[in-house]
Structure formats: C-alpha cells, structure tokens
Amino acid sequence: MNEKGTKRLRMTASSLDGRDFSNMDLEDADFSFSSLKDINFDGANLRNAKLRFAALDRTTFRNSDLRNADLSFSSLTDVDLTGARVEGANFSFTSQEKSFNWRDLNLIGIIQNQGWIGTVVAVILGATVLYGINAISYFTAEIYFTNEPVRIKLYQYLVSQNVIAGVFTILLTQGITIWLDVFITRTILRHVILSVIVLIMNNLLAIAVYFLFGVTLVDNYRNLYPNEAAQNAPWYWYMWGPIIVANIFYFLSREGKQISRKISDQEFQLLNLEKLKTRAELDALQARINPHFLYNSLNSIASLVHEDPDKAEEMTLLLSKLFRYTTGRKTNDYFDTIENELEMVATYLQVEKVRFGERLRFTVEVTDPALKELHVPKFILQPIVENAIKHGVAKLAEQGAIVVRIYEEDEWLHLCVHDNGPPFSETMGAGYGMRSIQDKLKLLYGDAARLELHNEPRKSVNISIQKSAIIQNQHQGHDPIPAENDPHR
C-alpha cells in the first residue's frame, strides 16, 4: 500500500511493449525487469516508480512526473523526456546499447548476438581471415625456400601485383565512399555500384601491370609448367578478391561511423539528461527559497499592522519591490550580477529594518567595482543574510550589525556576510538555508566552490568560488551543466 492508501501496481518481469499508459497515475508502480519498449507514458504520474533493469527503448515520458523514480540499469535508447520532471530520479548505469534485430542489421550486432546467426557469421569470418593469412604464408614460404628461379620471379610478381591491387582498391573505395553516401540512398545499390567500379578499375590496373612487368615472367612460367591447373582458371576468377575487400571495407567504414555517431549521441543525450535533472533540482531549490522568505516577511507585516500601520505599509511596499526583482527581471533563471544580488539584499535588509528599527545596522563593501559585473547564482546571499538576522541580530538586546563584503583573493571570489550576534552552534550548517546554498554550489560548480562558517577571528559565513569557474560559466551562457560532467573542466 502507498501513502494514499491504494495498492501499488506491480508488473515486474512483464512484456508490455507498445502499450499506452498516458496520463495514468502509476505512482509507486513496480515495472522492474520488464520490457517497456515503445510505451507511451506521456503525462503519467511515475513518482517513486521502479523501472530498474527495464528495456525502455523508444519510450516517451513527455510531461510525465518521474520524481524519485528508479531507472537504474535500464536501456534508454531514443527515450523522449521532453518536459518531464526528473528531480531525484536515479539514472545510474543506464545504457543505450541496442540488441540485434533484422531492422537494424550490422556486423557487430550480429557477431555479438549469442544465437546461431552470430555463430555462423563469426565462423565464416574467422575461416576467411585464416585462409587469407595461410595463403600469404604459403606464397612467402615459396619465395624464400624454393630453388626454382622462374617460380620465384612469378610469385614475386604475383605478390607485388596483389599488394598494388589491395592498396588501389582501398584508396578507390575511400575516394567514392562520400559520393555513394550522398547520391545513392539504398544500401544494396551502393554495394552493387561499388562492385562494378572496382571490377572495371582493377581489371584496367591488372592489364597495365601485366603488360609493364608480367608478360615475360608469365610466358616463361607457362613454358616451364604447361600443365599446372592454375593456368586454366578464367580471368574473372581473380577479380572476386578486390570486390570482396572493397565491399567489406566500405561496410566496416560505415559501421564505424555509425558507432561513433551513436557514442556521440549517447554522450549528448546523457549530458542533456543531467542538465535536465540539474535544472529541476535548481528550480526546486529556488522555488523553496522564495516562499520561505515570503512567509517570514508576511508574519513580520502581520505583527506590525496593529502596532504601527505606517511601518506595515512601508514594509509591504518594500516587499513588493523585492518580489518585482525576483519575478519580473528578464535575466537568466539561475544567475545574476553581483550588483543586482546586492541590490536585492539591500532591499531585503530595508524590509527587516522596518521591523528592527535602530537595532539593525548594515553595510555593503565591494573592494573592486569590477567584481559587481561578475555573475553568481541567483539568491545566493539572501538566505545567509536572513540567517544573520534570525540567528544573530534577533538575539541581541543591543544594536546588531551586518556587513556584506565582496572581495577577490588568490583567484577566488569571496562573498562574506558578518554579523555581531552569538557564535554559530555546531548544528548551524544543517538548516535549510545553508543546505540550499551548499546544494546549489555543488550542482553548479562542483569542487570549484565552497561554503564555510567561521566564529574566529569574527563571526562570518564565507562563500568562495573560483573566478575561472565564474567566467567560464558566463561564456557558456549559464547553462547549468553538472560540474562533474562539464566537458570543459
């Protein structure tokens, strides 16, 4: 039973390919070890669902709720997650590898297949390669160990001709590959055209080499060994080799490009998946910060309505200005300049000053005006200042002082908030405000940022961010790539 009191759907190890589960409530459902290919989960509620070790190829999750779902060890080829909510979801060890099927025929897929088809193809390929190696060994041994000069010269000629033909065939195939891929759509037709071109060009090459170097050698050999069976083979018998080599080379080169493309696509999709998850987590953090401050401010206004209506009005107008900043600015969703962050903090402190009066004094110090143009995570300072009020100034009978100080030291940007309230307790870092900042810094900068609480030499909260990470983030357009997956780090 789940928390709603309904029985959890359990369909482990089921075959459900192609079903339509759109807009269904599947919270806490268990689809572990199931085949879920081509399924439509659009708009479905899959919160806390278990999709472990599942085949999810070509499945769509558009606008679905996958919060805290477990998709570990699953196959996610061509999955559509447009508009899905994935915060808290587990995508550990997911894969995009395709199993063998006739619609997507490829040599590697066939060989990797454990059935009889893969075995037969592997045996044929192995026998062909071994046959070719043994043929090379035979002719090499004949050249080195025979004492017959006519035979040695003929074999040297044949080996040289085959090497020239092999090099020519590969270069020719490479030269026309692009043309085949661009102008010929059907794969079988590409191989037919390639075979015809290779046949004609290799014949021309063989004729040219024969008349340049081989006429005398071949005539001498025929005169000395008139009854050898190999002399009776038709000319086209020796043309199969270049045609087979050309087609195998062309096939493998196309397979290699497809594999490289699949790897690149997989990396790109996984990166987008991580970015999507990071955006969802940042949205969740940011959405919780704003109401958190709103509740505190409204409680302050409510306490002033009867005691001091003028102050309540002033505080309401300041609060309106503050929320115009948070909701009306056309800046990036996750970053803003230090100058704008300081303006927002100053407005927040003015709101609190209405309540505390002369008990609250605050100053803002920026050692270098150029630092104001740097972009930092949005709402990174407000929760710290709020904690300084709540756990510092509010506990003092005398005047409280808050100092916001911005400076650069050893290529690190420091955002410090000092207050003269009681020292931090050991559990101070466990509050939601501090945790939200730590989570945001971890998501956006990884090890290039840290949050520290100090009681000595004076009480302060210090956010440190490597300046290079800030500048790099600005150059990337502030796209929230998880720090550990950022390809530029």
Automatic annotation (TrEMBL):
Keyword DNA-binding: no
Single GO molecular function: phosphorelay sensor kinase activity
UniProt superkingdom: Bacteria
Keywords, comma-separated and alphabetical: Kinase, Membrane, Transferase, Transmembrane, Transmembrane helix
Protein name: Histidine kinase
Lineage, opening ranks: Bacteria, Pseudomonadati, Bacteroidota, Cytophagia, Cytophagales
Keyword Glycoprotein: no
Regions crossing the membrane: 116-139, 159-180, 192-215, 235-252
Residue ranges constituting the Signal transduction histidine kinase internal region domain according to the UniProt record: 280-360
UniProt-listed Gene3D superfamilies: E3 ubiquitin-protein ligase SopA, Histidine kinase-like ATPase, C-terminal domain
GO CC term (a single one): membrane
